[in-house]
Specification:
This protein is an all-alpha fold. It has a single domain, classed as Arp2/3 complex 21 kDa subunit ARPC3 (Orthogonal Bundle). The protein is about 85% helix and about 0% strand.
Length: about 170
Amino acid sequence: MRKTKNLTFCSIMVALSVVLLFICSFLESLNLTAVLLSSICVFVVDEELHMKRALGVYLATGILAFLLLPSKLIAIEYFIYALYPVLKRQIGKTGRGVSIILKGIYIMAATVGDLAVIKLFFPSEIESQLLYILSGVVGVIWIILYDLFYSRLAKLYHFKLRHQLRIDKFFD
């Protein structure tokens, strides 16, 4: 019974993530918002069922997004950024200094990876070199805010949302 509950919960989170990505794929300005919203599902699975199942939800959502979404850019950005909630939890287990260094490495790698993918596969997205550099700066700022968001969300989730959404009763 427990395995069935966990599988059902993970399936619901995958479906919700894909639907969120699909809805936001029609408005190009909501790419990163779609990734943020769908990565909340990965975050919840990580908090409730731990890393192994969260990685399954992450991969299943990414593959389905790549196959089903009209905009492949959102699926690629999902693969780059949506793993962060799981990584954040693992990075948080290290010391504070190591944690900051690892987050910095991830921030730079994610931003460079995102810009490289856009430049290689979607050259029409960024016309000028100045816009390319500006996109990199915005990417770094965005992922720092993303980190702060997940720090606050983890506290809010454990102290308030988990009980209000009755997720605690689902797993007890």
